[in-house]
Amino acid sequence: MAHLGHPQAGRIGGAQQGVLTQVGRGTHDEEMQAVHIANAKALAELVAEDGWPGISTVGLEGSRTAWLIAQHAICTPEL
User: Where do the segments described as Disordered lie (predicted)?
Assistant: First the structure.
């Protein structure tokens, strides 16, 4: 699995931003929940393999991305 300091960070962040543009169009809740679940699954796999993605391993942007994923993973409280 790619680390969050690499292309995956852009993919994850891009998916979330794309859905955020749908706010007010009636699709936000379901689509955003699907994005959060997929992101949480990817982060959980990364954490299981390599531990928490800290700044020293994935850089500042990757670490911030991991925190945002965890913060929005309300459907995945074990994360």
Answer: 1-24
6-44 pLDDT, tens digit per residue, is: 555 555 555 555 555 555 555 568 888 888 999 999 999
Q: Dig out the tokens for 55 from the structure.
A: 């700044």
Distances (CA, A) of 14 to 7, 18, 43, 51, 67: 11, 6, 15, 23, 16
Q: Can you read off the two tokens belonging to residue 18? A: 């794309």
- Residue 77 belongs to what domain range? 40-79
* 35 within domain boundaries: no
pTM of structure: 0.65
SS3 62: helix
Kindly report each contact of residues 25-32 with a partner whose C-beta sits within 8 Å and lies 24 or more positions away, as own/partner. none
Please report, to the nearest 10 degrees, the dihedral formed by the alpha carbons of residues 73, 77, 67, 29 taken in order: 10
